[in-house]
Inverse folding.
């Protein structure tokens, strides 16, 4: 095991912002109560207890787990539009926004208070997404928490994925955290920093003039079709450039260019493209890419009307003018006037540059590994520095040796 993995994993369990607060909530009388009086209490007070639920006497001690869960239910009912019931006069969006914001803030505070009080047994852990963001914040490392096997799915409850009581820590979780920490550290402190390179894949080989072809070859991408683009060997930040045309369907829908991860079977990033056939545009996307092989793909919504797609039928394409008569698929891709029937992409080339290590990300890794092996004093300093960043407050040695 990487020698710092244990420490990193441990620190990240507890890394969270916020400080404990007293239980008495601000704004109950000015924000919450007027809203409840106007929209809720006539059904949920001492006289009427619809759903056997009293809002007027519900404790405002958000630091209590049980109370917080009741309030989370209230927030959920409000946000989902279930309460007040549909046939009742409805609150204005602005009122709703205010009370929802007030409640979320109180729930967050309560959670922070519970965390501050937590005993040695109840672990608090980051949600999957928080882990990903935190690792990037602290070390400038990209770790895709959604890759199958990386982490267990966080249980969702009331639409929140970070209510403390449901973020439990099973043995399989712990093991995954250790494994994640190894990967993260290998990326932050690789034996050798991977060199940034540029690779380009073109639809045409550049020899069309010599051969007397009527124009360069392009990849014609109708909805749900794609072409292999590049392999990413090291996960990280990359710049992807694509030269292409993007033609709308005859109804005006724009084609959507996606970088499709073949292993994950989903688009990692993408955007709509509009550019005439004879004036291709250059799209540049900077993004974190996980390892694996990628395709450029037309992800415009819309399978064909009969439910079929043409994904596997590829043919040499140069331009609408030279292809129009040619309908190898049996589907009409262009109108007799030369308009695209479906949102369509015509790709000239795809370029990948990276992995890119920005100065900002590089600096995050400074001062975390002692220069000399076995230098305990320096190791202590490094850990203290890292712990302070992870907890976002000065963390002396006593703090991290206590964990
Ligand atoms: C016209 C009457 C009425 C009004 C006004 C009303 N409710 Fe309700 N509420 C009900 C009824 C009936 C139920 C039980 C049925 C259900 O759960 O949907 C209920 C259930 C609930 C529950 C679920 C209780 C539980 O533990 O299952 C919550 C929470 C709630 N309401 C919150 C609110 C809030 C917050 C408001 C104001 C924004 C509000 N209600 C306004 C009638 C009302």
């Amino acid at each position: 095991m990487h020698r710092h993995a244990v420490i990193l994993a441990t620190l990240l369990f507890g890394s969270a912002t916020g400080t404990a607060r007293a239980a008495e909530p601000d704004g109950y009388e000015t924000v919450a109560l007027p809203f409840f009086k106007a929209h809720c209490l006539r059904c949920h007070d001492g006289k009427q207890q619809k759903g056997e639920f009293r809002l007027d006497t519900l404790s405002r001690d958000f630091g209590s787990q049980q109370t917080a869960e009741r309030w989370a239910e209230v927030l959920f009912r409000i946000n989902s539009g279930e309460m007040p019931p549909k046939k009742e006069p409805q609150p204005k969006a602005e009122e709703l926004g205010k009370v929802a914001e007030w409640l979320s803030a109180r729930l967050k505070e309560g959670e922070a208070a519970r965390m501050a009080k937590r005993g040695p047994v109840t672990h608090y852990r980051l949600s999957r997404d928080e882990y990903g963001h935190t690792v990037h914040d602290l070390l400038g490392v990209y770790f895709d928490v959604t890759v199958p096997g990386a982490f267990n799915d966080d249980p969702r409850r009331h639409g929140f994925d970070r209510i403390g009581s449901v973020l439990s820590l099973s043995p399989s979780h712990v093991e995954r955290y250790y494994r994640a920490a190894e990967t993260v550290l290998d990326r932050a402190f690789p034996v050798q920093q991977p060199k940034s390179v540029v690779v380009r894949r073109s639809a045409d080989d550049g020899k069309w003039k010599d051969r007397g072809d009527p124009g360069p070859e392009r990849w014609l991408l109708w909805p749900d079709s794609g072409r292999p683009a590049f392999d990413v060997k090291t996960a990280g930040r990359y710049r992807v450039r694509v030269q292409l045309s993007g033609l709308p369907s005859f109804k005006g829908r724009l084609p959507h260019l996606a970088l499709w991860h073949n292993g994950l079977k989903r688009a990692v990033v993408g955007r709509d493209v509009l550019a005439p056939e004879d004036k291709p545009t250059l799209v540049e996307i900077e993004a974190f890419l996980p390892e694996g092989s990628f395709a450029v793909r037309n992800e415009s919504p819309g399978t064909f009307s009969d439910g079929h797609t043409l994904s596997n039928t590829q043919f040499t394409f140069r331009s609408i003018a030279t292809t129009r008569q040619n309908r190898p698929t049996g589907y009409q891709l262009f109108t007799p006037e030369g308009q695209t029937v479906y949102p369509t992409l015509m790709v000239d080339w795809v370029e990948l540059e990276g992995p890119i290590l920005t100065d900002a990300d590089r600096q995050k890794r400074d001062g975390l590994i002692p220069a000399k092996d076995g230098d305990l004093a320096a190791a202590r300093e490094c850990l203290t520095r890292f712990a302070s960043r992870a907890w976002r407050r000065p963390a002396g040695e006593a703090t991290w040796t206590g964990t």
User: Anything to note?
Assistant: The longest helix spans residues 93-117. The chain has three domains: 19-117, 128-191+359-401, 197-354. The two ends are 19 Å apart (CA to CA). Residues 197-354 form a domain with the Jelly Rolls fold (CATH 2.60.120.260).
